[in-house]
Amino acid sequence: MTLSAKWHTWYRESNPFLDHATLKAAKRRVKSAAMLLTLGYIAAAAFFYLMQRDFTFPRQHEPAAESPISRVPDATAYRVATASGTVDAWFLPPIRSADRHPVLIFSHGNGELIDQWLGEFDEFRRWGLGVLLVEYPGYGRSDGSPSEPAIQAALVNAYDAIIGRQDVDQDRMVGYGFSLGGGAICALARERHLAALILQSTFTSLRIFAHRYFMPEFLIRDPFDNASVLRRFPGPVLVLHGVTDEVIPWQEGQKLAMTAARGTLRLYECGHRCWLPDRIPLATDIRAFLSKSGILPPVAE
Asked: What is the pTM of this model?
């Protein structure tokens, strides 16, 4: 018998009641700790489930009188009906006019408003693109509350509002989504025809954020499963991402490009809001993509 075994035998024989009582108390403490940890995790999961839309959609509100769309010549402001009220949709025509022109439908990030993007697409409009900016329910001057179904309905109804315009080419509709807007545009692509997609700084699915908080994926109420859309999307897809993106890793963009049947990936030296036309060839790459995809005429040499 080893020295250790002898010591344990002596301890049990000399302290039979103390040893048993200590063991039972230790078991109770372990059970109590496990119960507290379980209850704490359940409480955290419930908080995560109930409050996640406040984190996913940190919406901003603007008084109705402050709409800047009236300052854009020839622009059209729509109030698009949804199940929970109306939302803003602004159509900006091409600066270079054409009888029938393609349209780029843009969806912004979760902490933004269409107001902040109003002047960002002048270059695109000079190429001959019309631009449709669609606000999310509960954002800006729009009614309702944001969710994946509500945002999808807003984009579908805005799409339907302009598709019948005589100056719009129905076969050259392009979706462009930034960050959360990538999920919104992919949700639109589930329901309506888009000839091409541009996804910038976006994700395969919002379920990736459940992992960050050690939560199960099924608790995500608005998953925006972009990867599942791209698996079935037949058109060309341009994925843009910054390699120093601190919100959504660039590898998410890489996965999207690999998932799409006709995906192209462009990586830039920038962070999440990779909108730096003076420093990166973002506009040049988009123009080349749209020309290659037949949305715009070939770029002149």
From this structure: 0.88
